[in-house]
Amino acid sequence: MALSAGSVLLINTLLSNRMVLENEFNALTEVIALSVIPSLIFDNSEEAKQTLQSLHAHKNVIYAAVIKPG
User: Fold this and answer.
1) CB count, 10 Å around CB of 51?
2) What is the rounded (10 degree) CA torsion for 48, 52, 54, 55?
3) What is the average pLDDT score of the chain?
4) Which of 19, 30, 45, 53 is 20 to 30 A removed from 11 (C-alpha atoms)?
5) What does the domain layout of the chain look like in residue ranges?
6) Distant-in-sequence, close-in-space partners of 32: CB < 8 Å, separation ≥ 6
7) 66 and 39 Cβ atoms separated by less than 8 Å
């Protein structure tokens, strides 16, 4: 019984952590997108690079890029 309860607790914790991480990434995506839009409009790649470098503070971000359409 204890093993079963422990398994349920572990699964619940993993799912909760995943949801928190997913929400954090969604918020980061929105903030970075809003910050990069002016860089794209004014063709300022240096400013876009600085915005992306701010993501180094987040250990869960492995890679980030801005791709200009067209």
Assistant:
1) 19
2) 160
3) 86
4) 30
5) 2-57
6) 51, 52, 54, 55, 64
7) yes
